[in-house]
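Hey, sorry to bother you again with one of my protein questions. A protein chain has come my way and I'm curious about its shape. It would help a lot if you went through both lines with me. I owe you a coffee for this, so here goes:
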Amino acid sequence: MDQALKDRKTRQITIGGTKVGGNAPVVVQSMCATRTIDIDETVAQAHQLANAGAGIVRIAIDSEKEIPAVKEIRKQTKGVVLSVDLQENYKIADRVAPHVDKIRYNPGHLHHIEKSKTIEQKVKWLVEVARDNDVAIRIGVNCGSVAPAFLDKYPGDQLAAIVESAAYHCDLMDSFGFTRFVVSLKDSDPVKVMDANRRFSKRRPDVPIHLGVTEAGLPPDGIIKTRIAFEKLLAQSIGDTIRVSLTLPNERKHEEVLVGHKIIQDVAAGRFISVPDFGAGLNIISCPSCSRVENMKFVELAQQVKELTTYAEKYKITIAIMGCRVNGPGETDDADLGLWCGPTTVNLKKKDRKLGYYAYEEVLPKLRTELDRLIAERTSATAAN
């Protein structure tokens, strides 16, 4: 299987001092879970991740107020290849790009900013910023924030919307003569991750791919979900850089990197896990703790939810626990029960219906009540059939 890792046909690009794509080794990367504005903590975690073997370390920027912090973080992490997640702040790319090696934008976050400008105009400006500052770009498409235009174009087929959105933005890059970019197509379902990346790789075999199972959750389940997708894709020569997304406290964040390297080593040696029934029962989705998390009780809550719901493990029910307001609302919509966490309260949902806002100390009994109700509904429906 080692040959599969060497037979990738994508172009090779440079991100800082790291080569991605082509015959370069698959690069493991990770993301700081600290708030970017907390400079000392972010610098320490960037070094923590790099020392564990992360070839690229990502930070996120929430507002203009964090631009000076990014500048200072860059000064103190000269040996680290630094990527910045622009999130919903694409307009500040020109002030951030001088201090990083790569910028990541989400196509699904462009439509509601500067509505007088077209998507093409916005992407062209991002390309000009990247070119002027000698940085690479990641086009990061996420299941929970697909651009409305593509959801409308492919109703009922989110996977097609994800792939076509990514392909469209690649076409824009081509039209602007820019080649230093990678693409990610992420979902919390490893099967969808495999399908989306296979489709995209067939469509654009030249473009380097960043693999990720978003909101994989707590170990060990989160590791298993990630392996299911990564093992099969890497064995098919798909994937040039990978990020393992686990719900972990800050002091253990580097474990994402160690798991990523272990997966690559196992694929190279032909060692694969086999979990035929994984996902047949209860599925707990939780996002990786990152700088967007506004209350680190989120990590503890995710663990408590996992412990609380063990009695429901045989039921095919999905519960999503999200840590921020950026991804939380949209990425809990498809879960049977969802919790997205704010600074002081947790928003409890059933699919896309809001059930209420509760303090962190109050939400678990409410979740238990809704879970019992859902199990009763499922049991009753099964009996009726």
About this structure: DSSP finds 13 helices and 15 strands in the chain.
